[in-house]
Amino acid sequence: MVFEINTSVYEKLPRSFYQNTDVVQIAKDLLGKVLFSNIDNVLTAGKIVETEAYCGRGDKACHANGKRTPRTEVMYGDGGKAYVYLCYGIHHLFNVVTNVKGQADAVLIRALEPIQGMDEMHERRKFTKTKLASGPGTLSQALGINVAMTGEDLLADRIWIADNPELKNFNILADTRIGVEYAEEDALKPWRFVIAGNKFVSKPVK
Fold it and tell me: Could you give the domains of the chain?
């Protein structure tokens, strides 16, 4: 396996990072971090460039709002676990569970800038370079993430997020979340965050 990056300098985020009670702040703080997957001994990774925050209390766009189901049960656990769900029956969307047990907050990872394992990503995606991981469904496909991985511990060695030692300063832009029109007034929350000027985001900020 060829490594484009020196993986030894990328330290996993600690549990305490995910247990911050402010999901909006975590969504911002995840920008620039690196999402890794090691699936069948194939290492892939990308810099997080777009996120969306979802609050388990009082946010009609959140799956856990006002209901607790077998699908959302993982969201009620301790922060630092993966919540992966199927959208439109075909797209596997990767979310990071945050906050402490019982609160059910999560951050959807919407886009990555690929930095490791591009050949493997292309093989999985069979699509163009610009769309390699620019969208929540495409990035999960590129990294080999699927709904069977719901509940994976992000401090383990299959899916994890690490600090980026090569990260440079950047500006953050906020916008409304995508595809949550059903959430009425909560659809207007400016809880989608992107790295300004990054060409790998799924959709430009309005």
Answer: 7-195 (3.10.300.10)
